């Protein structure tokens, strides 16, 4: 199935590209979520007519994400976790934990946009990437401390 992407997708392509996807993925996920349009001649013409409006909306979202990224830069989050005798964590710090801490600070971030690169399993400071927009990435410091 051929679709036109309405927004940048990490694994599929950039906005405006016509890509081939499996029929179920396109029909059941991309089109209903508003991520893509089926690549018919009418939809291709429609997309070309609406490109400026879509580009303006995209720029507005990017600017809003950049504003949030500026507020997030330099932010330090402290996570208390249970620690064993040797200083190793019981479990790990997950993207959900980081999302909850950001929520308490007043930032709403989807946990799927938080990149922990395999999880945090040691004490200390760790740099965590948050992809707010396909073109905007913020970094926060997560400090894992021993729970009292």
3D structure, described in words:
It is a single chain. This protein is α+β, with helices and mostly antiparallel strands and 148 residues long. The chain folds into two domains: 58 residues, Ribosomal protein L9, N-terminal domain (Ribosomal Protein L9, domain 1, 3-Layer(aba) Sandwich), CATH 3.40.5; 77 residues, Ribosomal protein L9, C-terminal domain (Ribosomal Protein L9, domain 2). It is built from three helices and nine strands. The protein has a four-stranded mixed sheet with strand order 4-9-8-6. The protein has a three-stranded antiparallel sheet with strand order 2-1-3, sandwiched between helices. Strands 5-7 form a two-stranded antiparallel ribbon. A hairpin with a 2-residue loop joins strand 8 and strand 9. The radius of gyration is 20 Å and the shape is elongated. The model has no long low-confidence stretch (mean pLDDT 89).
């Amino acid at each position: 199935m051929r679709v036109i992407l309405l927004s940048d997708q990490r694994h599929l392509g950039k906005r405006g590209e016509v890509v081939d996807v499996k029929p179920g993925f396109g029909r059941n996920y991309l089109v209903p979520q508003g991520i893509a349009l089926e690549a018919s001649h009418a939809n291709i013409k429609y997309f070309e007519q609406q490109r400026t409006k879509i580009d303006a909306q995209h720029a507005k979202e990017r600017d809003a994400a950049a504003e949030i990224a500026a507020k997030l830069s330099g932010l330090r989050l402290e996570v208390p976790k249970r620690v064993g005798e040797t200083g190793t964590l019981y479990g790990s710090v997950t993207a959900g934990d980081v999302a909850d801490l950001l929520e308490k600070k007043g930032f709403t971030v989807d946990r799927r946009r938080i990149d922990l690169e395999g999880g945090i399993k040691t004490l200390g400071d760790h740099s965590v990437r948050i992809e707010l927009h396909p073109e905007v990435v913020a970094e926060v410091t997560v400090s894992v401390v021993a729970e009292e």
